[in-house]
C-alpha cells in the first residue's frame, strides 16, 4: 500500500500495538484523540523556528556525498532507541543533501512494512526547500543522549501480560538528551535545547532491533 491512506493505517497500527501495552483501551482512545490536536503535534525543529522569512522555491542541491550513521546492531531496545534518537536529532546540511539524509534514516527502519510508520519519521525532516536554505547557512546539529528507559506504564502493562508483546515485539522507549545547533550568517551562530522522544522499537528474538515509529507524544 502507498499514499496518505496507508500512512494513516500504518501509524494507527503502530500506536495501537504500543499503546495497548502502555495504557489499555481507555488510554488508547484518549491518546488517539489527543494525537489530532495542535497541542500534541510534533514540535518543529529549532532550525525551522529560526527560519522566519518566507522561503522562495529553490532547486534541490546535488548530493554532497555524506552519510548517515549506520544502524547499530543490538537486540537491546533501549540501546537501539538511544542510538536512533541521536541520529534523529542530528543532521548536517554541509555534507548531506535532503534525499541522502532521508535514505540514511530509512536504513534504521524495520523491514516489516506492516509495522513500519515511515511517515512519523519523515515528518521530522525539513522539506527540500527548507533544507536547501539551511544548507546556505551551513546549518548542522549534533546530539548527546542522556538516558533511555521503558515508560512506567509500558513496564506495568507488560508485567501484567508478558505475552502481549510476542506478536510484533515492539517496545516503547523514551529517550532524553540535548541537541546542539550551529550555523553561519547569524550573530548567534549556535543554539541548544533539551530533547525527549518516545520511539517504537521492534526487537524480534532472532534479529537485530529496528525503528518502527516515532510516537507523536513523549511517554514519561
Automatic annotation (TrEMBL):
The chain crosses the membrane at residues 12-32. It comes from the Bacteria. Residues 53-64 have a biased composition (Low complexity). Keywords: Membrane, Transmembrane, Transmembrane helix. Residues 42-69 are annotated as: Disordered. The lineage of its organism: Bacteria, Bacillati, Actinomycetota, Actinomycetes, Kitasatosporales. This is Uncharacterized protein.
Amino acid at each position: 500500500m502507498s499514499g496518505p491512506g496507508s500512512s494513516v493505517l500504518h501509524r494507527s497500527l503502530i500506536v495501537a500495538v504500543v499503546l495497548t501495552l502502555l495504557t489499555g483501551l481507555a488510554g488508547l482512545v484518549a491518546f488517539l484523540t489527543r494525537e489530532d490536536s495542535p497541542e500534541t503535534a510534533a514540535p518543529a525543529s529549532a532550525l525551522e523556528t529560526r527560519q522566519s522569512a518566507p522561503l522562495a522555491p529553490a532547486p534541490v542541491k546535488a548530493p554532497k556525498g555524506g552519510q548517515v550513521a549506520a544502524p547499530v546492531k543490538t537486540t537491546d531496545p533501549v540501546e537501539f532507541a538511544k542510538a536512533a534518537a541521536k541520529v534523529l536529532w542530528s543532521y548536517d546540511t554541509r555534507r548531506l543533501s535532503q534525499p541522502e539524509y532521508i535514505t540514511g534514516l530509512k536504513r534504521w527502519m524495520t523491514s516489516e512494512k506492516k509495522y513500519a510508520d515511515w511517515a512519523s519519521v519523515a515528518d521530522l525532516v525539513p522539506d527540500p526547500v527548507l533544507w536547501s536554505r539551511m544548507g546556505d547557512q551551513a546549518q548542522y546539529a549534533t546530539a548527546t543522549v542522556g538516558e533511555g528507559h521503558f515508560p512506567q506504564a509500558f513496564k506495568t502493562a507488560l508485567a501484567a501480560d508478558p505475552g502481549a508483546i510476542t506478536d510484533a515485539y515492539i517496545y516503547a522507549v523514551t529517550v532524553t538528551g540535548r541537541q546542539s545547533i550551529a550555523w553561519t550568517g547569524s550573530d548567534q551562530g549556535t543554539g541548544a535545547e533539551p530533547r525527549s522522544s518516545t520511539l517504537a522499537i521492534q526487537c524480534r528474538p532472532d534479529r537485530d532491533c529496528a525503528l518502527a515509529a516515532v510516537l507523536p507524544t513523549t511517554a514519561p
